[in-house]
From TrEMBL, chains A, B:
SMART domains: HTH_GNTR. This is PLP-dependent aminotransferase family protein. In the C-terminal section; belongs to the class-I pyridoxal-phosphate-dependent aminotransferase family. InterPro entries: Aminotransferase_I/II_large, HTH_trans_reg/aminotransferase, PyrdxlP-dep_Trfase, PyrdxlP-dep_Trfase_major, PyrdxlP-dep_Trfase_small, Tscrpt_reg_HTH_GntR, WH-like_DNA-bd_sf, WH_DNA-bd_sf. Keywords: Aminotransferase, DNA-binding, Pyridoxal phosphate, Transcription, Transcription regulation, Transferase. Residues 9-77 form the HTH gntR-type domain. One of its GO terms (molecular function) is pyridoxal phosphate binding.
Length: 499, 499
């Protein structure tokens, strides 16, 4: 976490932070003029250069704008995205269309190509985001003391010491879990895959958020499952009224959802909604597969508990991984299978057997050593700051009328462009600029969201990334013919919020 | 491999080896008397103690027996198993019976319990079978030089350097493979699972050997696939006549087989049969999933090539892993998907994403360093010797009329008891003795082979294991009322071979 630490230690950066806070709180209102550089230098007893650097940083981050011959002004806030929920659930679509699958391939190819400026892949690919040094030392020490670990068969349901640590950690999200009910999996993705296989059979219907984690769609198709889109509000999540209706009509065999720091919308469901969701699933005895992948990267002061923590009769299966928080390469995830725990242990055994004891124990030793919370706090702060920076760049450079989410956690932003911007076309244009983002159409089996896109803000926002954001804005402005600048006026935003 | 090395360096052991060779070649015929200890000491210019130790070793391994007041005699050879092939393929069985699944659980629970003497789990669980020290040093060095490996996302289809090394190594089994067609998987089991998913859909029928790798049966059931048992000869493998008939009648959507060092029968199909198998699958355009898990642990001087090496139009998918040969804990396997390679890459990505780059590169560096062939030679020699030792113990302690396979590779032996021995009952009796083996019924979806069992001979045959083998023999003798000793007379064996 050296980058954040270095920057925050410099005086100009402290100043920029204080001003950003003032803007966030409204002390410095949108449109108001900042004190002149000279006056600020006097007020805060710093050099003129420090103030200039602080103002430039605020400008880079989109908080303020320079007006020639006039000074620096506070930019208007970016209005939050406020989807019109689709009140009717969609016709089940057994498989995503071929063009969607082709598009997924293209997105994936650009994600893994290091020559692209990557605003698509949800992983920083950078070693200063993770305690790689400490993990490496733990592993080397294990290899010295227990060389036999390599020579032993990795056995299901996975390392007992890691399952113990996971159960201990789960309390921070409100879950009281038994290590015996936890299966160690190959990342969160295998956890989801096994949870689906253990709760459904081919031909079944699975309710999901729309937009949803886009790899879910080909995963469901590969298992012969039908996706049923449930209207999803960008602030409050899954429409529980629609869900209740679908459950009452017995049209769902399982539901898969991300109630905390959702990918791609970033919302966390309100507590009351989480409780109602848990109650609905238990009442109707339909399994909920809760994807908690980003639940430990919440930005709020206290962590919103998992829906699983309100589970009564084991109808909720909780899936997550250390891939986003600790060691992407290890791909160690886990699932607590509720009433399906036994079946899950067995399916893992006949599906891919078990996870490496060496990798599992490395994580367990790290978790036991107590450095995890410290690491998570730094990671949350860093991602919160990067998300804010990206939102500021959107407000400044994307076409008027653009709306963007205000994530409660994670590191992705969902952007809705005004009419006229087709994001698949935009995606292909940006590939020529060696910029990679994820077009909205991938996030729904029915291919909606043609003017939406997801930006992954897990990279350090250096000049290269700032230029890429500006370039996306330019391309989008060209496409819709609107000038860049604040997406909506405050009045429009208010109106859209209340409508 | 210190154990083998130490033993083979001692004089008495060399002498025992030479005598064992002479017995194998027939120079010392079954029933003949060995020279007296005194005379042997003179002949070979060694001490009397050395000769005694060598004879004791041969006795332990079942080559010779002491007759009181008379001397040491060469034991008769154990007749090879000669199944009567089941000429008609079996009715498809969609799922193994519940009692079979329960039994698998019980077997599994005993396999992973270290208080049992384990003749069931096909993994030594001992560090002197693998180059764990060298692998550990490679990994520690990678962690020091590239700490970032931990912090990066493991991406499909897997480490390019490892895929390169795999393609290079595949030549030893006659396969010319493109690294681009190889998917790195989570062990051979995930390779098989993905290969099945990519070539079939729920409700399809999959032809398999009988007996077969027993975890295949719940795996097929979990994927909604029907198992069709194809008669399998313990010396020549899959009945290709039956297979051809089934293919001609379009009754199979895929075939899964282990043509080299098969688990559990140990046979390697003759070369001509392998060629015919490849031709049949290509002619009928039905995918063959070739499980090559033990193909590198063949006992013969030259390696029998994979069926994949005779593939013409990409209808053969080759699956294997480094789990049995190098690093059980890593669970790094691979599949070459033939004409399904692209589909396989994609399914892996939406099923469990990718394998750890750290583990993959550790293997790649080891493979590149050239120590693998040396290691494999030692492993083959060791397993060949242990299998022989187990066969000798079977000949000596199991009931008359018992037959056992003569494996061409791997480290498992299949035993057929005479009528009266029910191996599920025997399994439960042996659990009380804290001995764990695998009853034959698990190896067939229709639950045949009630008098068969599989013994895994991958452990060092110390006193504990020898006692366990003797105990199995005692229990079986009690059950059928037959005395221990050579299973069949030579005449009976000849007769059963020609019948």
């Amino acid at each position: 976490m050296t980058d954040t630490a270095d920057l925050s230690d410099t005086r100009y950066n402290q100043l920029a932070e204080q001003l950003a806070d003032a803007i966030r709180r409204g002390t410095l209102a949108p449109g108001s003029r900042l004190p002149s550089v000279r006056r600020s230098a006097q007020t805060w007893s710093v050099s003129i250069n420090t103030v200039v650097a602080a103002y430039r940083r605020l400008e880079d981050r989109g908080f303020i704008e320079a007006r020639p011959q006039s000074g620096f002004y506070v930019r208007a806030a970016l209005p939050a995205l406020n989807h019109q929920p689709h009140e009717q659930p969609q016709t089940p679509a057994a498989e995503p269309a071929d063009e969607v699958l082709d598009l997924i391939d293209k997105v994936f190819a650009s994600q893994i190509d290091p020559t692209y400026t990557n605003l698509s892949l949800a992983c920083p690919q950078s070693n200063d985001f993770y305690p790689t040094g400490k993990l490496g030392r733990i592993m080397s020490s294990l290899l010295r003391r227990q060389p036999n670990l390599i020579g032993q068969y990795a056995l299901p349901p996975g390392s007992p010491v890691l399952r113990q640590q996971i159960a201990r950690r789960a309390l921070t999200l409100g879950m009281i879990l038994e290590p015996a009910d936890i299966t160690i999996t190959h990342g969160c993705m295998e956890a989801l895959q096994l949870a689906l296989r253990v709760t459904t059979k081919p031909g079944d219907s699975v309710g999901l958020e729309t937009p949803t984690y886009f790899y879910l769609l080909p995963m469901l198709a590969s298992l012969g499952l039908k996706a049923v889109e449930i209207p999803t509000d960008p602030q409050t999540g899954l429409s529980l009224d629609v869900l209740e209706m679908l459950l009452a009509e017995k049209r769902l065999n399982a539901v898969i959802a991300m109630p905390t720091a959702q990918n791609p919308l970033g919302f966390t469901m309100p507590l009351a909604a989480k409780k109602r969701l848990a109650r609905l699933m238990n009442d109707h005895q339909v399994p909920l597969i809760e994807d908690g992948l980003y639940a430990e990267i919440q930005f709020g002061a206290t962590l919103s508990p998992a829906v699983k923590s309100f589970d009564r009769y084991g109808w909720i299966l909780f899936c997550t991984s250390f891939t986003k928080t600790l060691a992407p390469d290890f791909r160690i995830g886990w699932v607590e299978g509720g009433r399906f725990a036994d079946k899950l242990h067995k399916l893992k055994a006949v599906s891919s057997m078990a996870e490496s004891a060496l990798l599992s124990q490395t994580l367990a030793v790290f978790l036991e050593s107590g450095g995890y919370d410290h690491h998570l706090r730094a990671l949350r702060k860093r991602y919160a700051s990067q998300v804010e920076q990206a939102r500021a760049l959107i407000a400044r450079h994307f076409p008027q009328g653009t709306r963007a989410t205000q994530p409660a956690g994670g590191f992705v932003i969902w952007v809705d462009f005004p009419p006229g911007v087709d994001c698949v076309t935009l995606f292909h244009q940006l590939l020529k600029d060696k910029i990679c983002m994820t077009p909205g159409q991938l996030y729904s089996p029915s291919g909606r969201y043609s003017n939406g896109l997801r930006l992954s803000c897990c990279y350090v926002f250096d000049t290269r990334y700032i230029s890429a954001m500006i370039r996306i804005g330019q391309r989008a402005c060209e496409m819709c013919g609107l000038p860049p600048g604040l997406a909506e006026t405050q009045e429009q935003a208010e109106e859209s919020r209340t409508s």
